[in-house]
Write a structure and sequence with these properties.
The complex is a heterodimer of chains A (400) and B (391). Among the domains of chain A are: 78 residues, Dna Ligase, domain 1 (2-Layer Sandwich), CATH 3.30.1490; 156 residues, Nucleotidyltransferase, domain 5 (2-Layer Sandwich). Chain A has eleven helices and 19 strands. In chain A, strand 1 and strand 2 form a beta hairpin. By secondary structure, chain B is an alpha/beta fold. Chain B folds into three domains: 191 residues, Rossmann fold, CATH 3.40.50.1440; 101 residues, Tubulin/FtsZ, C-terminal domain (60s Ribosomal Protein L30, Chain: A), CATH 3.30.1330.20; 26 residues, no CATH class. Chain B is 40% helix and 19% strand. Chain B has a six-stranded parallel beta sheet, with helices on both faces. In chain B, strands 7-10-8-9 form a four-stranded mixed beta sheet, sandwiched between helices. In chain B, strands 11-12 form a two-stranded antiparallel ribbon. The chains are: A alpha/beta (400), B alpha/beta (391). At the A-B interface, helix 6, helix 8 and helix 9 of A face helix 4 and helix 15 of B.
Chain lengths: 400, 391
C-alpha cells in the first residue's frame, strides 16, 4: 500500500532532526530526506527557549524539504524526557457466552476498557502497548481467541508524560507552522526502526543514548517488557568534562567527541591532549586518563541506572539477544565495551535496519528514533479510519 | 538480639592485604566467625577461600581475575560491578568490620565504594585501614592518603593503622619479609582479640550490639593491644597497652573520650587483677573518659592477661548532644545519650572535603534537577563519587 510522504520531527537536546519517508520496496519505509540543525533552547529534553527552538526546526525542515523534494506541513513528534513513565494497566472481562469461548468481540471489548488508563490530570497518555492475556488462572497467553474460560484479563503497558511538556513540543512545531499528527516516545521510535522480530523473540534491551536523555525499551518473548527515560544524556558528559578541566562547553564537546572514551585505557596514564588556543582561551593540555575517568564515571552510572530499572522490571535474565545502543551517545568510544561489562551481555550499536535510505548516512544510529517515527506514522496511516485504541490493541496482537 | 542464622557482625577483607588479615583473624577465631573476602585477584581469592572464608571475585568480567595492577580506578569499577553480590552477603548483618590495606588498587579503589554501599544499606561500618610502609613509595602513600577522607565520609568509624608506626624502634637487621609478616601478625592478633571479646561470652560481656553503638557514637578510633604474663601481669599488660605503637605509645589513651577495653585471660584471672587493670587504664586516660569494659575467660589465654582497646577520640564532640561543661564534669551515661536504634552518625557538612553543592551543576544550574536515590545527577559523577583526577 503506497503512502504519502511522512515527516517526523525530533527536537533533541543537542540537535533537531527532521526525517521524511515514503513507502519503498516490499512495503518498507524509505527515508528520502533528512534535515539536521543544532538545537539551542532545550535542556534535558525539555524546551526552555521556544523561539530558539523554532529557528532550529525551521532550518531542519528546510534541509529535509530540499533533500526529499517534499513540502513539509505536517509532522509526527518524537518525545523524550525524565517525565515519561511507563506502567502496567490491567483489565478483566467475564466471558458471558454460553460456551465460554473467547470471541474477537470479547477481546475488542476488553481492549477498549483496558486502554482507558486512569491518569493524573497533569499527565497525557502517549501509547498503550498490549502485553499478555490471562485466561482464568493461566497467564502469559498471547492470543486467547477460541480458548475456553470464564474470566479474561489483559495487561497493557501505558506510556505517559507530563501534559505541559508534551504541549510545549507541539507548540514549538506549531510555531514553525507545522501541524502535529501524533506524539510518540522516542524509545518506541528507535525500537521500530532497529529491532527485528528475532530480537524481540530472544529478548532485547534497546538503550537510546540521546543528548539530554537516555531512553530504554525492552522486549522479552516478543512481548513489550519495560520502558522508561532518564533525564541524563550526552550533555551531562560534556558538562562533566567542562567542569573537570574548566574549559568552555563547546570545547568540552569537541574534546569528548575527539578524544573521549567510556573505558579507561590501561596505557592512557601519561598521554595528554593539547587544546589549541582560541579567542579568550589559552592553550593547555589535559590528561587522557582523567578525561576517560570523567566520561567513564558518567556513562557507567547512567548504564547502571538503566540496569537497575530493567532488573526491577525482572527482564534482565531474559535478554538473550543482548543490548542494542542507539542515539548519538552510542558512538562515544568504548561505550559498547562498557555496556557489555555493566550488563554482562553482548552489546552492539543498532542501525535503523527496518528502513531503507540511510545506508550511506554517517552515524545512522543517531537517527534511529526519528526514522522509526516515520515507520510509526506509516503504521498509523495504514490504520487510518481504524485508529481507535481498540484497533491499536488488535494490531499489537496480530502484528507480532 | 542474637540469632544464629543471622550473624549480627561480619568481618570483610577487601583487597589482597585485607583478605590476608581477615583470613588470619578467621583462622585464629575458628569457623564460628563469619568472614568474607573480596578481591580482584582470583588466585589470591582461591588461597583465601581455601582457609574456609567466603570469597567474592570483584570485577571478574572486567579484569578476568588478574587484579587491578595497582589502579584504584579499576578497583572502584570492579567493586561497582559486583556490588549486588557483595550486598547479598550482608543480609541480616548489623555491623561490618572492614579490613583493607590502602595504597593498592583493590584496597584503595574498592573500599570506599563498599563502605559507602554498606552505609546506604543501614549497616554500621568500622573500617580498619592500614597505611603503607614509607619504603613502599610516595605514590602508594599519596594514594592511601587520598582515599582515607573518602572512606571517612562513609564509614561510621575509621581505624587507621600506619604500618610504619609498628617498626619505629626496629633494628637495621629486620628483614622486609619479616616486617610485613610481623605487621600483619600484630594487626591480626589485635583484631582476633577484639573478635573474641565480642563473640565469646564473658563475665562482663561486650556483644556486637555494644560495639555497634560505640561505633555509631564514637567516630574514628585508634586500636591497640598489649599482653603480659607472670607476676604483676595486670599492671604490666596495661603498660604494654600504653606502649603499643598503634595507640601512639599511650597518647591515644590520653586523648580518648571513650574507650572500649577488652580483658582476655584464662580462668586464673583474679578479681583484684581486673581492678588493677581498670585502675591503671583510668590513670592512663584523661579524667571523664568513658570506658566500656568486657572480659573473656578462655583457657586459650591461661597464664596471661591480654588487653585490646579501641580508643574513640571524638566521642563527646561528634556524638553527644551534651553541653561541653556538663560533659567535662561528668562522664556520659548511656541513659542520657539520645541515640536512635540503628541511627547513623551525621557528619558536619563543614568537615566534608567532598561537598561541591550547587557549584558543580555547570550548565544545568537553575534547571530542574534530575534526582536518583537522593543524588543530583546533574552534578558530575566524578565529583559525587569523590574521584580524584590526574589532570
Amino acid at each position: 500500500m503506497a503512502i504519502p510522504p511522512i515527516a517526523a520531527l525530533e527536537i533533541g537536546t543537542s540537535r533537531t532532526v527532521v526525517c521524511v519517508g515514503e513507502s519503498g520496496e516490499r512495503g518498507r519505509v524509505r527515508i528520502t530526506g533528512v534535515g539536521v540543525c543544532p538545537t539551542i533552547g532545550v535542556r534535558k529534553g525539555q524546551i526552555v527557549d521556544l523561539s530558539k527552538v523554532r529557528v532550529g526546526i525551521d532550518k531542519a525542515v528546510k534541509e529535509a524539504e530540499k533533500a526529499s523534494g517534499v513540502d513539509i506541513w505536517q509532522v509526527l513528534i518524537a518525545l523524550s524526557g525524565g517525565h515519561i513513565q511507563a506502567e502496567v494497566n490491567s483489565g478483566m472481562l467475564a466471558i458471558r457466552s454460553n460456551d465460554h469461548v473467547v470471541s474477537r468481540e470479547d477481546m475488542e471489548e476488553l481492549g477498549e476498557s483496558v486502554n482507558d488508563v486512569l491518569l493524573e490530570s497533569d499527565r497525557q497518555l502517549l501509547h498503550t502497548i498490549p502485553l499478555t492475556f490471562t485466561v482464568d488462572d493461566q497467564s502469559g497467553i498471547v492470543k486467547p481467541e477460541g480458548m475456553r474460560c470464564k474470566m479474561l484479563a489483559l495487561d497493557v503497558m501505558a506510556i505517559h508524560g507530563l501534559k505541559n511538556r508534551i504541549d510545549n513540543a507541539v507548540n514549538a512545531a506549531k510555531s514553525a507552522k507545522l501541524d502535529v499528527t501524533d506524539v510518540a516516545f522516542s524509545g518506541i521510535g528507535a525500537a521500530l526502526s532497529v529491532l527485528t522480530p528475532e530480537h524481540k523473540h530472544n529478548g532485547v534491551a534497546l538503550i537510546d543514548l540521546g543528548g539530554g536523555t537516555t531512553s530504554y525499551v525492552a522486549y522479552c518473548n516478543s512481548v513489550f517488557a519495560a520502558s522508561g527515560c532518564i533525564a541524563v544524556g550526552g550533555d551531562h558528559i560534556t558538562n562533566d568534562v567542562a567542569l573537570a578541566f574548566t574549559i568552555p562547553q563547546a570545547r568540552a564537546e569537541d574534546v569528548k567527541r575527539r578524544y573521549g572514551s567510556a573505558v579507561i585505557a590501561p596505557d592512557s596514564g601519561n598521554k595528554r591532549v593539547t587544546l589549541p588556543a582560541d579567542v579568550g582561551f589559552e592553550e593547555r593540555s589535559i590528561g587522557c586518563k582523567a578525561l576517560q575517568t570523567v566520561i567513564n564515571a558518567r556513562v557507567d552510572e547512567t548504564l547502571r541506572i538503566v540496569r537497575s530499572r530493567l532488573d526491577d522490571a525482572g527482564v534482565l535474565p531474559h535478554l538473550g539477544a543482548g543490548l542494542i545502543l542507539t542515539g548519538g551517545g552510542a558512538y562515544i568510544n568504548g561505550v559498547t565495551d562498557l555496556a557489555r561489562l555493566v550488563f554482562g551481555l553482548p552489546c552492539r550499536i543498532g542501525v535503523p535496519s527496518n528502513v531503507d535510505g540511510l545506508d550511506g548516512v554517517d552515524q545512522s544510529a543517531a537517527l534511529a528514533a526519528v526514522a522509526g517515527l516515520v515507520v510509526h506514522g506509516r503504521n498509523n496511516y495504514e490504520d487510518r479510519g481504524l485508529l481507535s485504541p481498540v484497533k491499536h490493541v488488535l494490531k499489537g496482537w496480530f502484528g507480532r | 538480639m542474637k540469632n544464629e542464622d543471622q550473624p549480627a557482625m561480619l568481618l570483610l577483607g577487601v583487597g589482597g592485604g585485607g583478605c590476608r588479615l581477615a583470613a588470619s583473624v578467621r583462622a585464629a577465631c575458628g569457623a564460628g566467625m563469619r568472614a568474607v573476602g573480596a578481591d580482584t585477584d582470583a588466585l589470591a581469592n582461591r588461597q583465601a577461600a581455601a582457609g574456609g572464608m567466603t570469597c567474592l571475585l570483584l570485577g571478574g568480567s572486567r579484569l578476568a581475575g588478574h587484579g587491578t595492577g595497582g589502579d584504584a580506578i579499576q578497583g572502584r569499577l570492579a567493586a561497582q560491578d559486583d556490588m549486588q553480590n557483595l550486598q547479598s552477603q550482608m543480609k541480616g548483618v548489623r555491623t561490618v568490620v572492614v579490613v583493607a590495606c590502602l595504597g593498592g588498587g583493590t584496597g584503595g579503589g574498592a573500599t570506599p565504594e563498599i563502605v559507602k554501599a554498606l552505609g546506604e544499606m543501614g549497616i554500621a561500618t568500622i573500617c580498619f585501614a592500614t597505611m603503607p610502609f614509607s619504603f613502599e613509595g610516595q605514590a602508594r602513600r599519596k594514594e592511601a592518603e587520598r582515599v582515607l577522607p573518602i572512606i571517612e565520609e562513609s564509614a561510621d568509624s575509621l581505624v587507621v593503622v600506619p604500618l610504619d608506626d609498628l617498626f619505629k624502634d626496629a633494628g637495621d637487621d629486620l628483614l622486609l619479609d619479616n616486617a610485613v609478616t610481623l605487621a600483619e601478625g600484630i594487626i591480626a592478633a589485635g583484631m582476633t582479640l577484639l573478635w573474641r571479646l565480642l563473640s565469646k561470652p564473658g563475665f562482663i560481656s561486650v556483644d556486637p550490639e555494644r560495639l555497634h553503638t560505640m561505633v555509631l557514637r564514637g567516630g574514628n578510633a585508634l586500636f591497640g593491644c598489649g599482653s603480659a604474663g607472670g607476676e604483676d601481669r595486670a599492671v604490666k599488660a596495661v603498660e604494654a597497652l600504653r606502649g603499643c605503637r598503634l595507640l601512639r605509645s599511650g597518647a591515644a589513651l590520653t586523648r580518648a573520650n571513650a574507650l572500649l577495653l577488652g580483658i582476655l585471660a584464662g580462668s586464673d584471672l583474679r578479681l583484684a587483677e581486673v581492678g588493677a587493670v581498670m585502675r591503671e587504664v583510668h590513670k592512663a586516660c584523661k579524667p571523664g573518659c568513658h570506658v566500656e569494659m568486657g572480659t573473656v575467660l578462655d583457657p586459650f589465654y591461661e597464664g596471661r592477661v591480654e588487653l585490646v582497646a579501641l580508643a574513640f577520640e571524638s566521642w563527646t564532640a561528634a556524638a553527644l548532644a551534651v553541653p561541653q561543661a556538663a560533659a567535662a564534669a561528668e562522664p556520659p551515661q548511656d541513659d542520657i545519650v539520645p541515640v536512635r536504634a540503628g541511627g547513623r552518625k551525621v557528619r558536619s557538612k563543614s568537615a566534608s572535603k567532598l561537598s561541591f553543592g550547587a557549584t558543580g551543576r555547570g550548565k544545568f544550574k537553575g534547571v530542574e534537577p534530575t534526582l536518583h536515590n537522593n543524588h543530583d545527577l546533574d552534578v558530575p559523577t566524578f565529583m559525587r563519587r569523590g574521584i580524584r583526577l590526574e589532570r
